[in-house]
From TrEMBL:
The lineage of its organism: Bacteria, Bacillati, Bacillota, Clostridia, Eubacteriales. Residues 173-292 form the Endoribonuclease YicC-like C-terminal domain. This is YicC-like family, N-terminal region. Its cofactor is a divalent metal cation. Keywords: Endonuclease, Hydrolase, Nuclease. InterPro entries: YicC-like_C, YicC-like_N, YicC/YloC-like. Coiled coil: none annotated. It comes from Pelotomaculum schinkii.
């Protein structure tokens, strides 16, 4: 089953009083590119998350954002530096005596001094959080892949319909081709009759001219190759793998065959079919740009 390159996925997980929210947005891109935005404290996990995503996403640009929300009580630790408080107190008493200033040293003044009372947040334990973060990433990737598969099914239906139209046009060109040679033979007879005094055409001369034209205007090989490419395209659309690059190549080859047919066949009906075929192929090419 083919997958589109566009999609969105979101995942959540909770651990150690924190909620981890991971979001993914994917768009078209020629290669596989993953761009992540993580909090500074979680930057050591960037390579792991990138590898995890690239194992599931073969093509496209994927932007990922990891957010962290507090969802529980913080286990902060309050520390009092008693030695520092005593040093402040002694220094203040000494300064009072030196300056001859009286009065009591207030407790509030003492604890407000830098370093006496400090609050320490618990250290970030990235390894402890990783299993939960991985679950959030997994959920987001699953949702993204699911959306890409749904869009891929729609693309496949559209491409199959257009490839059937191309197949029909190729068949009509193939059926019309023999008449082009016959019509040329008739025009050639009329033209030669105009130039010859006695109005007699040598059968060998006529056969030779018609053979030369038939060889120059033959599009049988192009018809066969175009049909083969269309069959390969259908096979790719039912394959359960990344086929975007292969489809790009097939589109290029089909365009080459159609252009060759256009240059060889100087016939109004074939020219009209070629114009319609090129229009359908361009629409297929645009859709293929969305396939992983």
């Amino acid at each position: 089953m083919i997958k589109s390159m566009t999609g969105y996925g979101r995942g959540e997980a909770v651990a150690a009083g924190k909620k981890f929210i991971f979001e993914l947005k994917a768009v078209n891109h020629r290669y596989n590119e993953v761009v992540l935005r993580l909090p500074r404290s979680l930057s050591p996990l960037e390579d792991r998350i990138r590898r995890f995503i690239q194992a599931r996403i073969a093509r496209g640009r994927v932007d990922g954002f990891l957010g962290v929300e507090e969802c529980g009580e913080k286990n902060a630790t309050v520390k009092v530096d008693k030695a520092l408080a005593a040093a402040y107190y002694n220094a203040m008493k000494e300064l009072q005596e030196t300056l001859g200033i009286g009065g009591e040293i207030q407790f509030q003044e003492l604890v407000a001094l830098p370093g006496v009372v400090t609050v320490e947040e618990p250290a970030d334990d990235v390894e402890e959080w990783w299993p939960s973060i991985q679950n959030a990433v997994q959920e987001a990737v699953d949702n993204l892949v699911r959306m890409r598969m749904v869009e891929g099914e729609q693309l496949a239906r559209d491409l199959l319909s257009r490839s059937e139209r191309l197949f029909y046009l190729n068949q009509s060109i193939r059926e019309r081709s023999p008449f082009v040679v016959e019509e040329y033979r008739e025009r050639l007879v009329a033209r030669l009759n105009d130039y010859m005094r006695d109005g007699i055409i040598t059968p060998d001369r006529l056969a030779a001219e018609a053979t030369i034209f038939a060889e120059r205007s033959s599009i049988t090989e192009e018809n066969v190759r175009l049909e083969s490419h269309l069959q390969q395209l259908k096979s790719c659309l039912t394959a359960g793998e990344s086929v975007g690059r292969k489809l790009d190549f097939l589109i290029q080859e089909m365009n080459r065959e159609i252009n060759t047919i256009a240059s060889k066949a100087s016939d109004l009906e074939i020219s009209r079919a070629v114009v319609e075929a090129k229009s359908e192929l361009e629409k297929i090419r645009e859709q293929v740009q969305n396939i992983e």
